[in-house]
Automatic annotation (TrEMBL):
PANTHER family (alphabetical): 2-NITROIMIDAZOLE TRANSPORTER, PTHR23523
Sequence ranges assigned to domain Major facilitator superfamily (MFS) profile in this UniProt record: 26-405
Keyword Transmembrane appears in the UniProt entry: yes
TM segment ranges: 25-54, 60-82, 94-112, 118-136, 148-168, 180-201, 227-249, 261-284, 291-310, 316-336, 348-369, 381-400
Keyword tags: Membrane, Transmembrane, Transmembrane helix
Lineage: Bacteria, Pseudomonadati, Pseudomonadota, Gammaproteobacteria, Chromatiales
Keyword set includes Membrane: yes
Protein name: MFS transporter, CP family, cyanate transporter
Entry coiled-coil feature ranges: none
Pfam families with a match to the protein in the record: MFS_1 (PF07690)
Gene Ontology molecular functions: transmembrane transporter activity
Length: 412
């Protein structure tokens, strides 16, 4: 009688067991949440501040779009070296270094006096987010190997919560301070808290590495068609998300809303995103997530279509609805690489590979919207382009069945 079972490579078993002996679940969850909260405010907080930054530094719309596109591009480009850095220096130490870069870059952005300096600081923000975000999913896979979807839902919910807080409070902070720099610099504070939390994780991990066996450096799934399909789905979702994050507030300011009101609409987007992330992580219990993926993509498409048709009609309904679908798709897309991996190291390689094309394509979103806005006199065409991209995302979902190659046949 032949029976299928899953086996882990022999060299990967000991590291996985070592991870299971790490900090308590409560401490691990707290540290994941504190780090994840810092992974979007450095980008999202710029949206409500764009009109003031454009006016002070004389940016064009396409230059302003680079303030979102540069971090997004780096989130893809630096995902590839992240697993190697983790293998060479230790995952937790590299995450800690990335958080230090992130905090320093957010602080530097408050001091810039030219467009070049602004772009340099923005690149630092992107670099910190890229490395920390890529490697943190590997930590989730290692610490909670049997409950990946649930804890990835918690991870992405924390990311969305950070986005929502930044979207809702940055505008009022800027108005209260009468200065966009103070509002942008405020987001150094949660990064400092995350650094303190992750320092504990890094010290704990350092002790285990001293006595643990070395693992083999992971390989990227370059020849796996499932990896490319996941990357395409994730790319479409991220393109729409970052285009909305960059331009939703300016769109509604241009439609006659105050910066604070436009910031609240943006907060409605990030709130809808945040509500969806744990929900879709919880309801998606099977590794074949195609039905739930299609539901999330369909909801996102419906919301985007309504915004494109009548952006000023019930924005606090359609904007959060679009975000709800996007948030659900984001959680599931972050989980898909882990579904196809057997070890934390392999999960990091899959995540890195998926993030490279995904975030590079996503970086085009803000630039494309800014370019189309420079060409015309409204954001109308840009919104319809995002609808088309959402339709492509929905069409990909039937092909996202996990492709496991780590199964063997044994005979009792």
């Amino acid at each position: 009688m032949l029976v299928q079972c899953k086996t882990l490579p022999q060299t990967a078993v000991n590291p996985l067991l070592e991870e299971a002996k790490g900090p308590s679940i409560a401490i691990a969850v707290l540290c994941i949440v504190l780090v994840a909260l810092t992974l979007r405010p450095g980008i999202v907080s710029i949206g409500p501040l764009l009109p003031a930054i454009i006016q002070e530094l004389g940016l064009s719309y396409i230059q302003a779009a680079l303030l979102t596109s540069i971090p997004t591009l780096l989130m893809g480009a630096l995902a590839i070296p992240a697993p190697w850095l983790a293998h060479r220096f230790g995952r937790d130490r590299v995450i800690l270094a990335a958080l230090l870069v992130l905090g320093a870059s957010i602080g530097l952005r408050t001091l810039v006096g030219s467009i070049g300096q602004l772009f340099f600081a923005t690149a630092g923000v992107g670099a910190g987010i890229a490395i920390a975000g890529t490697l943190l999913s590997g930590y989730v896979k290692a610490r909670f190997p049997t409950k990946v979807a649930i804890f990835m839902g918690l991870y992405t919910t924390s990311i969305a919560l950070g986005s929502t807080l930044a979207a809702a409070s940055t505008g009022p902070l800027a108005e209260a301070a009468e200065n966009w720099r103070w509002a942008a610099g405020f987001w150094v504070l949660p990064v400092a808290l995350a650094i303190g939390a992750w320092l504990f994780i890094e010290r704990n991990g350092r002790q285990k590495r001293a006595s643990g066996a070395l693992s083999v450096a992971p390989r990227l799934p370059l020849r796996n068609p499932t990896a490319w399909l996941i990357a395409l789905f994730f790319a479409c979702n991220n393109l729409v998300f970052y285009a909305m994050i960059a331009w939703l507030a300016p769109i509604y300011i241009e439609l006659g809303n105050t910066p604070t009101a436009a910031g609240m609409i943006l907060a409605g987007y990030t709130l809808g995103f945040m509500v969806a992330t744990p929900l879709f992580g919880f309801i998606s219990r099977n590794e074949d997530r195609r039905i739930v993926l299609a539901v999330s993509a369909g909801i996102a498409l419906l919301g985007s279509l309504a915004i494109a048709v009548a952006p000023n009609t019930l924005p606090m309904l359609w904007v959060p609805l679009a975000a709800f679908g996007t948030g659900g798709a984001f959680t599931l897309a972050m989980t898909l690489p882990l579904d196809n991996a057997s070890t934390p190291e392999e999960a990091g390689a899959w995540s890195a590979f998926v993030m490279l094309p995904s975030y590079i394509v996503a970086a085009v979103g803000p630039l494309l919207v800014g370019f189309l806005r420079d060409l015309g006199d409204s954001f109308h065409l840009s919104l319809w382009v995002l609808v088309v991209i959402g339709a492509v995302m929905l069409l990909v979902t039937p092909f996202l069945k996990p492709n496991r190659n780590n199964k063997v046949l044994i005979s009792p």
